Amino acid sequence: MPTRRGVLRGALAGGALAVTGGALAACGTTGTGSSGPTAKPSCSVPDVSATERTVLFSNWPAYIDEDEKNADVHPTLVAFKAKTGIDVKYTADINDNNDFYGKIRTQLTNCQTIERDIVVFTDWMAAKFIRNGFAQKFSPDKVATFLKNLSPSLKGRQFDPNMEYAAPWQTGLTGIAVNTGVAKEVHTVDELLTRADLKGKVTALTEMRDTMGFMLLSMGKDPANFTTADYDAALDKLKAAVASGQIRKFTGNDYVQDLAKGDIAACIAWSGDVIQLGFDNAKIKLITPDEGMMIWSDNMLIPTTAAHASNAQALIDYYYDPKVAAEVSAYVNYVCPVAGAQEEMQKIDPDLAANQLIFPSAETQSKLHLFMPLTEAQEKEYEGKFQSAIGA
Asked: Residue 42's pLDDT is what?
């Protein structure tokens, strides 16, 4: 099943929909309820940044600006080297959170180098990475631009409340997508689950955090702070929508084709998909339901075994310059995590600067919700119940 990340890689300005392989991000994973590491490896790696002017950066495919004539050249990285003298060895080798974590876990546990100074993980895996003591803490004086310009909606996250370990690279939203050529707009989760004209024409996501986040919101519960009883009640609501025939099926990214063709009328969807579909069909819209949208991020982290931590922090801080952030967002079309980048985007592309899926308004930001970090026991319980409910 394609990953969310693989799907949203397709939301490139003027690019084709790209899909990478791998298991869905949320399946069979663990999270954390703590705000920092609880089991630190006894690693002490000398920082050789001053003598080795390099940084080793692993990221997901098609997740950075590319030169029009050579996709292997990234203009913002070229500019970073010109500005700092630091060479970036950039590798797009992360295709799945679990897979990549599995490749580096043993080395990190044994304090062995993974030959990476920055890795990028989605929120729940970033939480696990931090909890297991694999992330180096930032030095505030070296990431001052990050601390200043991180979007207010991303501050105070439960797994990194003091912004010490994880810097969002890009962010995405989960909302309700509607093909208005097939049905009128949908403005609440309850509409999606009960409106007669949508019966059998609705899909939800196989990623637990996204679908259950909406179920919890529809019951007036906060996805960032709920009980097992809340979860079970929300799951019963989902089961009822399945039993009634309202929800046709649960999908990975394959709702994209069905929505474009009009085979489904509405669905729980990811923002990057809808941007891409909207390029070709203006009748396809992502709607912020009255309950709000779910928000998630992919985060830059510095492994404990990184030998160029200072250089890595310089790179992280560089990408929080609004001008640089706008250049990346103009290419990848994700929600930009950097305050001030919208104004810079006006100089690049006014249409993108006005796009709510890239620069949500203050009103939209007030309706964005994170999913609560889970303990290993909660993850096993909640994921098991969800998979049983959706027939996976």
From this structure: 61
